[in-house]
Amino acid sequence: MYVGDSHPYVQAVNQLAQLWVDRVREDLSKMEYLTRCIKEGLRLHCPVPFVQRKITKELKIDDVTFPAGTSFTIHIYNLHHNPRVWNEPMKYDPDRFCAANIKTKDSFAFVPFSAGPRYRIELDKDHTVKRKIAGVMQAENGIKIKLHKREHSKSLI
C-alpha cells in the first residue's frame, strides 16, 4: 500500500486497474453461475475457519444467560459443513447458491469472511515513513493507518 501512495508509476497503474475493476464489476454482476461457483468454493474451503467475538451486553439463549464480556468462538468451517444446514455438505454444488435455494437459507448460513462491520484501511498521508536497515526491512517510525467503517452492504448470500 505504501509503495502505491509514494510512486507516480504505481499510482498510474492503480488508476488503470481501478478503471478495469469498475468495468469488470459491471460484467461480474451478470455472471451468476461464476458467482455461485465462487461462493460454493468459499463454503467448502472457507478462508476464515473460525472467529471469536466478545458480547457487550447480557445475552440469553434458551435458559442460559451469558454476562457481558463473555467470549464466543464461532466455527464457520463447521457451519459450512453442517448437514442440518447444507444437504450433502462435502459435495461441490454451485446450485446451492441459485436464487431459489438461497431463499430457504438463513442469511448467516454462509459467512466465509465472518459477519459484521467492515473497515477500509487508509494510509495516514501526514506521516512520513523512514526506512530502517535491519535484518528485515522495516519502517523506522512505523506506518500509520486509519480505519474507516464501511457502509453496511447486502447479505453475503
From TrEMBL:
> Do the record's keywords include Iron?
yes
Provide the coiled-coil residue spans.
none
* Source superkingdom: Eukaryota
Arranged from A to Z, the UniProt key words for this protein are: Iron, Metal-binding
Species of origin reads: Tegillarca granosa
Protein name per the record: Cytochrome P450
Name the protein family: Belongs to the cytochrome P450 family.
For this protein, the record's Pfam families field holds: p450
Q: Which Gene3D superfamilies match?
A: Cytochrome P450
Q: Which InterPro entries match?
A: Cyt_P450, Cyt_P450_E_grp-IV, Cyt_P450_sf, Cytochrome_P450_Monoox
